[in-house]
C-alpha cells in the first residue's frame, strides 16, 4: 500500500513523532493507522495517549444536574463546523437534549433517539434532531449520553473551553457544604486537565495492564543500552515504568494540579480532615468533543445520514 503525505501528516498529528518515523511506521504496518501508533509506541516515539487528541468533528458537551445534586446527565452533540457549535439555537437544543437525558430511562443512544421529545411529544428525539438540521442548515448528531444517580453523596459538573470538555463527578460524602463543593469542583477541573482513565487501580483490568506491559517492554528492549542488562534488571525497569504510567491513568494517584506537593488522594484526605468526615470520589465521566471519532470531517454527513435512517 502506498503511504501518502496526508497519511504521514495524520499520524504525526496523532503521535507527535517525526515525519520519517511516521512514514516508516505506516510502511511497516501497511497503512493501518492504529497499528502504526502501536509501532511508534513500541519504538518509544509516541506518547501513550496522543490518539485521544484525534478530533474529527465540532460540537459541544453539556451537562445537567438536578437541584439536589442526586441525578445528572452529560451529552455530546456534534456539528460540522465550529461556527454552528457556537450558534445560540444549537446551544439551546443541546441544553434541551441534556435536560431530557437527565430524565430518560433509555439504556443506549438508539433508545434515547426513539423516545418522545419532551418539549413536543408529537415528535421523537430523532425527529426533533432532523428538524434542527433543517433549521440550522448543517448536519448534526446526538452522539452519546450518560446518566448517573448518586446513592450517598452528590454530583457536580464542570464545563471547560465553552463545551469542548464536560465532566461529571460523583462525590461520596455525608457532608455537602461549601468546602466539599469547592473540593468537588477542583477535582472536576483536575479531570478536565489531566484526563485520567480510572478513579484508582482497582478499576484497571488485567488485560489493560498486560497490554501496557508489552508496549513498555518493547520500548525497553528496543533501546540498545539495555541489550546486555540481566532479566531481573529489565523487570525492575518495566515495573517502575508501568507504575509511573498507571499513576498518570488513576485520578487519586495523580499529582494534584493546584498543589504539586500532594496527590489527589492527599488533597481529598486533607479536605476530609477539615470537614470531619470522609470525602472520596466514587466515579467520574469525562466527555471531550470528537474524541475517538476517526472519520474525517468530510465523512461526517454520512454518519449523520446513517443515524437519521436516510
TrEMBL record:
The lineage of its organism: Bacteria, Bacillati, Bacillota, Clostridia, Lachnospirales. Associates with the EF-Tu.GDP complex and induces the exchange of GDP to GTP. It remains bound to the aminoacyl-tRNA.EF-Tu.GTP complex up to the GTP hydrolysis stage on the ribosome. Residues 72-291 form the Translation elongation factor EFTs/EF1B dimerisation domain. InterPro entries: EF-Ts_dimer_sf, Transl_elong_EFTs/EF1B, Transl_elong_EFTs/EF1B_dimer, Transl_elong_Ts_CS, UBA-like_sf. GO terms for cellular component: cytoplasm. The keyword Protein biosynthesis applies. This is Elongation factor Ts. Its main location: cytoplasm. It comes from Mobilitalea sibirica. Belongs to the EF-Ts family. Residues 81-84 are annotated as: Involved in Mg(2+) ion dislocation from EF-Tu. It is found in: Cytoplasm. PROSITE patterns: EF_TS_1, EF_TS_2. Keywords: Cytoplasm, Elongation factor, Protein biosynthesis. NCBIfam families: tsf. GO terms for molecular function: translation elongation factor activity.
Amino acid at each position: 500500500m502506498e503511504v501518502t503525505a496526508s497519511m504521514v501528516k495524520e499520524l504525526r498529528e496523532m503521535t507527535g513523532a517525526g515525519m520519517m518515523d511516521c512514514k516508516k511506521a505506516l510502511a511497516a504496518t501497511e497503512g493501518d493507522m492504529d497499528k502504526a501508533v502501536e509501532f511508534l509506541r513500541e519504538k518509544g516515539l509516541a506518547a501513550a495517549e496522543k490518539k485521544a487528541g484525534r478530533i474529527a468533528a465540532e460540537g459541544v458537551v453539556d451537562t445537567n444536574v438536578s437541584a439536589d445534586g442526586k441525578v445528572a446527565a452529560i451529552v455530546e452533540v456534534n456539528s460540522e463546523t465550529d461556527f454552528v457549535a457556537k450558534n445560540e439555537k444549537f446551544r439551546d437544543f443541546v441544553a434541551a437534549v441534556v435536560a431530557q437525558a437527565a430524565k430518560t430511562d433509555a439504556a443506549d443512544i438508539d433508545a434515547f433517539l426513539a423516545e418522545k421529545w419532551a418539549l413536543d411529544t408529537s415528535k421523537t428525539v430523532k425527529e426533533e434532531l432532523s428538524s434542527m438540521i433543517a433549521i440550522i442548515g448543517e448536519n448534526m448528531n446526538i452522539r452519546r449520553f450518560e446518566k448517573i444517580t448518586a446513592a450517598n453523596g452528590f454530583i457536580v459538573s464542570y464545563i471547560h473551553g465553552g463545551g469542548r470538555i464536560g465532566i461529571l463527578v460523583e462525590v461520596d460524602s455525608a457532608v455537602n457544604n461549601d468546602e466539599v463543593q469547592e473540593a468537588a469542583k477542583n477535582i472536576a477541573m483536575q479531570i478536565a486537565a489531566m484526563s485520567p482513565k480510572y478513579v484508582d487501580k482497582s478499576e484497571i483490568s488485567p488485560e489493560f495492564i498486560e497490554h501496557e506491559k508489552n508496549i513498555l517492554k518493547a520500548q525497553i528492549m528496543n533501546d540498545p543500552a539495555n541489550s546486555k542488562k540481566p532479566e531481573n534488571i529489565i523487570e525492575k525497569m518495566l515495573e517502575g515504568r508501568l507504575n509511573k504510567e498507571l499513576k498518570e491513568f488513576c485520578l487519586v494517584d495523580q499529582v494534584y494540579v493546584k498543589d504539586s506537593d500532594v496527590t489527589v488522594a492527599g488533597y481529598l484526605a486533607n479536605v476530609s480532615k477539615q470537614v470531619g468526615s470522609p470525602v472520596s470520589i466514587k466515579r467520574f465521566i469525562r466527555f471531550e468533543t470528537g474524541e475517538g471519532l476517526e472519520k474525517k470531517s468530510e465523512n461526517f454527513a454520512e454518519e449523520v445520514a446513517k443515524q437519521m435512517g436516510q
